[in-house]
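User: Quick sanity check before I run a bigger batch. Here is a single chain. Can you write out its predicted 3D structure?
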Amino acid sequence: MGLNIRKLTGHFGAEILDIDLSEPMSDATFAAVSTAFDENSLILFRGQSLTPAQHIAFSSRWGELEHHVLQEYTLPDHPELFVLTNKKKDGKPLGAHKTGWHWHIDNTYMPRPSLGSQLYAREVPPEGGDTWFTSLTAAYDSLPEDLKARIADLKAVHSYAHVYALKYPDREPLSEERKAQVPDLVHPVVRTHPATGRKVLYISEYIIKQFIGMSVEESRELLDELNARATTDDLIYRHQWRVGDLICWDNRATMHFAQPYDDVNYTRLMHTTRVITDVFKGERAA
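Assistant: Done. Predicted structure follows.
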């Protein structure tokens, strides 16, 4: 089946038009959507009106969904839906706030990392709160040959405990039980995408604690260089959210950055699901 598609950038990303995700989708249509996802690394559906159950049902077409380690920020009765918001009820946060306000790939620290994420906008501020995306395929292709050779066999330690302590000092510290759920994992810095066969730069700004065989200082210097090369203006798609937007992105081929907004005067409410995979599985760190 042919889809009505509008490209978002020259490198990646596409808007799929004329599809209502609240309606049943045939296998043929989903196969075309899945192909567009693989080919573009990010697909956008605007103007959707989805219940939590419909959001979960569509996301599940790709595979098994994650139940986030921070269970207190999932939607009651729908543990597959992780809530991102600054809203509170009776002084209690209704979701995670200031999450992902840095360049990252979702869930590289999980024993079974994320194949893709599906983020749905329910409330958005009138300004700010955009999400920036970059293509890690295009980023790898843009690297000079000497740097490609340097990182060809390099491996990195991905650590949730590291990024949690670094980026969320105002939250309650992780319990030993939760740390055990997300042990440090080792991933190659360069991976081959299973659907496209293209090489991707598999980095995540703060989740990477260290490169194997390098000091912390050397690791930070190299990671900063790789991150800077992966996030040049020509590689980035900047998405300005509207209520009803659903974006599905490939965590095997993109990195993203949630932008700040005025969280005192405005509210933002987003629901996200994440499909898990065994394809990019990491190794337990020593």
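Residues 132 and 238 are 4 Å apart (CA to CA).

User: Great, the batch can go ahead then.
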